[in-house]
Structures are given as structure tokens and as C-alpha cells.
Amino acid sequence: MQARAERMKAVEDKIAEVKAIVKQKYGMDLSDLIVKYDLKGRTAGWAIGMRTVRLNTTAIFGDEAHFRDMVADTIPHEVAHIVCHRNPNLGRKHDAGWAAVCRALGGTGKRTHDMTTIEYARGRTYIYTSSAGKEYAVSERRHRSIQMGGTCRFRQASWGVIDRLCAYVVKLNGRVISTHAAQERPTTSVFGRVFVRPVAPLPTASFSGYAIPAGTRVVEAEKPTAPKPVAPVNTGGSYAEQVRALIRQAKAAGHDQNYVFLQAVNSLGMKASSARNCVKFNWPRV
User: What's the 3-state SS for 183-225?
Assistant: First the structure.
């Protein structure tokens, strides 16, 4: 592997080369171009405004193939954005005009890079092999979503899909710590033709707003049904006094705070926010 200094020199030489092409072909002086080496994650490069380019240091100093792609394609790709930002008549975003500028600077003109396994800056990286054999790295959050039954689809249908039946490896700081083989996909037969059935999400239940796999034992108090409106406990007292009286009755009958809250709203006519705060404040004091 090349030393870091050698790679940085190669990157800087490429930037100087592309600047010279821009000046020759488009008459633009990019001497004020700012290049920052602070980009992390899967994004290889990012052009900001008319004179700032950010490059991915993980790709520059990591895998040899990623480094070559950064020099050969990412730098022309991002500088082409700068050229189009300065002269929108040449192209916009990733349209045909921009692609022509990118190719003129030595790039491929593709919208996205081919570096599908750039390691994340922090945490574990989960590298899945899609149903079509395409490798793709996902974050830990996306990995959990996939394992819960979510599906990751690509813009290019030929890349297949990623779901919990796909094979994947887990990397930490670039080192493989575990591997997981692909699971057999469910199929069905219709008139002699075999079809792959879509993977159904795992049955889930809801607990405090979070989805959990079915079968997980969760101990939770039974939610009370809405009580019938009753007459105020003490029409002559303040809301706080009446709520405290309701709390005494509820505790004696084995009801919880929700029961008192509903009684305060239905029978005392309190606003929901006031009733909730009043019950919460007075419950431990009664």
C-alpha cells in the first residue's frame, strides 16, 4: 500500500491537472478552489457552492481500488460540479451537460461512484450481499431495520434487494468480526412456474412506541377502559382537592393514574394537559 504522503501527492497532482483542463477548455481560473479532506461515510466527494470540494479520507487512505477511483473519477466528478455551478449553461446537477463536462475532465460521467464498501467512520459496518449479488454497506441503524423485516431497494432494479435473508458480514474498524450466510428464500408454484415470495416483516407488537418481535415477553399494566362520567367528588373545592379525592378513591379500588386522569377530564371538566399534570403531581402525595 502506498504511504499516506504518496497518496496525498497523487490526489493533489490530479486536482492540479483537472484545474489546468478547466482553464484550457472553459477559461475558468480555479486557483481559489478550496479542497477539504474531512468527508466521512459512504459519500466519496461533495461539491459545495462555487469553490469548495470535500473528499472522503477513508477512501483516499483505505482500499487501493477506492483510492484509484477517487483519483480517476471522484475528483473530476466534483470539479465538474464546480464548473457547472459557475456556469449553469454548461449543465446542472447530474444532467447530460454536467456529464459531458465530467468526461471532458477525465471522469466517467456517472452519477454515483462504485465504492460500495467504504467503511463508516464510527461503529460497526454491515456489508450485505443483495439478492442479485451486489455488495452494499449499511449502518447499524439500517441493519436493525432490515433484520426486523425491512427491505432496502436500489434505484437500479438489476441490483436486486436487501432483506433479512441476504448474506452479510460485520466489520469493525475494517476487520471482519462475524459472517452470516444467506437464508433460503420462500417460493411458491403457480401452474408449474416457481416464484419467490416477498419476505414478510416479522410480526411485531408495540410497547411504549417501539416495535418489538412477537413473542417477546413484556410486563405491562393493563390499560384501563374509559370510565363512565361521575359527579364531581367535591364541587366546592379546587381542582387539586377534587383530584386528590379521586386519587384516594382510585387507589382504594386498585385503579391507576390513567383512570384518575380520565375522571378528571370527564367528570371535572379539566383540560387534558392540566389534568395530566395535576394527577402526576398529586399521585405520590396522596
Answer: CCCCEEEECCEEEECCCCCCCEEEECCEEEECCCCCCCCCCCC
Residue 128 and residue 140 in contact, taking contact as beta carbons nearer than 8 Å: no
Residue-wise pLDDT tens digits, 58-80: 788 877 877 888 899 999 999 99
* Cell triple for 73: 473519477
Q: Is the pLDDT of residue 115 over 80?
A: no
Q: Give the start-to-end residue ranges of the domains of the chain.
A: 4-104, 124-196, 239-285
**Model pLDDT, residue 18:** 94
User: What superfamily in CATH does domain 4-104 come from?
Assistant: Metalloproteases ("zincins"), catalytic domain (3.30.2010.10)
Residue given cell 364541587 in the structure block: 235
Give the span between the Cα atoms of 88 and 90, in whole angstroms. 5
Against a cut of 0.85, is the pTM above it? no
Tell me the mean pLDDT in the region 138-142: 81
The pairing of beta strand 34-39 with beta strand 52-56: parallel
- Determine the pLDDT at residue 117: 45
CA torsion through residues 237, 238, 241, 245, sign: positive
